[in-house]
Amino acid sequence: MPYVNIKITDDGVTQAEKKALIQGTTKLLQEVLNKDPQSTFVVIDEVDTDNWGIGYETVTEIRKG
Amino acid sequence: MPYVNIKITDDGVTQAEKKALIQGTTKLLQEVLNKDPQSTFVVIDEVDTDNWGIGYETVTEIRKG
Amino acid sequence: MPYVNIKITDDGVTQAEKKALIQGTTKLLQEVLNKDPQSTFVVIDEVDTDNWGIGYETVTEIRKG
Amino acid sequence: MPYVNIKITDDGVTQAEKKALIQGTTKLLQEVLNKDPQSTFVVIDEVDTDNWGIGYETVTEIRKG
Amino acid sequence: MPYVNIKITDDGVTQAEKKALIQGTTKLLQEVLNKDPQSTFVVIDEVDTDNWGIGYETVTEIRKG
Amino acid sequence: MPYVNIKITDDGVTQAEKKALIQGTTKLLQEVLNKDPQSTFVVIDEVDTDNWGIGYETVTEIRKG
Fold first, then answer.
1. Burial class (CB in 10 A: 0-12, 13-18, 19+), F39
2. CB pairs under 8 A between C and F
């Protein structure tokens, strides 16, 4: 019964990429800890780059360089 | 001072349903643990069905059957 | 497929009280949004009163009055 | 390597205010715990006032008075 | 700059298993979204089986069968 | 009604340091967004260094360097 929350910046992540994250995480938990995929939840949060900060700057600013 | 976070899929949940979740959770914490409703926070996150995975599939795919 | 996280202070909450929180939350989501209890996760975090702050004070201090 | 998540209501918070929250939090962790700003993440979640409840009411209702 | 939080039950997960979860998640984000491993945080929370509920029961009860 | 969650590694953070984090965060939200300290919650999670990964390594390993 794992629950995994993945927070990434909102950069036009595609449906295929989201599915790859969900499948990869579910497989990892099955391989490492033998967790049942049917009770593994993966939730992806896409965060606006104005709302994510590192090193005193927003990601919006970091990307502008 | 409880803090409750409810994550559900983004399926057109109405204002009335959100209020029912907030009231039911607050009442539960008051009844079970005698917590003061005035310092009980309930935050509801509505998650896109593309961003929620169970059993190697997104909820979008599961619903399509 | 809801996921609910309940954060409360670590005050000797009993197994019976935890079960009451889990059952009440699961029932609420079934009644309000028709969510399947078998795919409703409830996770309770018990937080040390030194680690929870409100109004510039820790809960430890607030309780001492 | 701290991770800080700030949840606030979605009330037209400006880019400048978000930056002030990010800078203030990062500076606080540097001053109090000597944490490296380059590995301090701050993520701001803006929550709809319909989705935040206190004292049996949504923030939407509380603001209407 | 992804942040990943993995919640699992507290079942004597070993250091090697934790490292495998961290490495697998970091690699997945590098492969799928080209994220820099140096700014990928993975945080594992181990939750007491009394504090995790599914289908009206705690995991403690489910395991007892 | 902000809710702030600060995740840091479990390195013997003192009560005074925790209080400084709570007070600094609460003051920041008051100054930047005019939030009422009485409804500002700050919750600090201390995470085992085995359970926090960056750049394919646990913090335990990084510190051994």
1. middle
2. 49
Do the Cβ atoms of D33 and F13 come closer than 8 Å? Answer: yes
| CATH fold for domain B3-64 | Macrophage Migration Inhibitory Factor (3.30.429)
Q: Residue E25 — pLDDT band, cuts 50, 70, 90? A: very high
User: Cα D51 vs. chain centroid, distance in angstroms?
Assistant: 16
Q: How far is A49 from chain E (nearest CA, A)?
A: 10
> What six digits make up the tokens of C9?
């202070």
pLDDT digit string, tens, across residues C4-53: 999 999 999 999 999 999 999 999 999 999 999 999 999 999 999 999 99
- Chains E and F share 3 or more Cβ pairs within 8 Å: yes
Nearest Cα to Cα of residue A23 among A10, A4, A8, A9:
A4
Beta-carbon count within 10 A of E50 CB: 19
Render pLDDT for A13-63 as a digit per residue (tens, 0 to 9): 999 999 999 999 999 999 999 999 999 999 999 999 999 999 999 999 999
Interface residue C40 vs chain E (CB under 8 A):
yes
Residue E37 annotated in active site: no
Tokens of B47: 């998650």
Chain D positions touching E41 (Cβ under 8 A) are 1, 3, 41
ipTM of predicted assembly, 2 dp: 0.97
Q: Which residues of E touch F53 (CB under 8 A)?
A: 18-19, 21-23, 25-26, 40-44
Q: DSSP characters for D19-35? A: HHHHHHHHHHHHHHH--
Helix segments in chain A, DSSP class H: 15-33, 59-64
How many angstroms away from the CA of D60 is the closest CA of chain B? 10
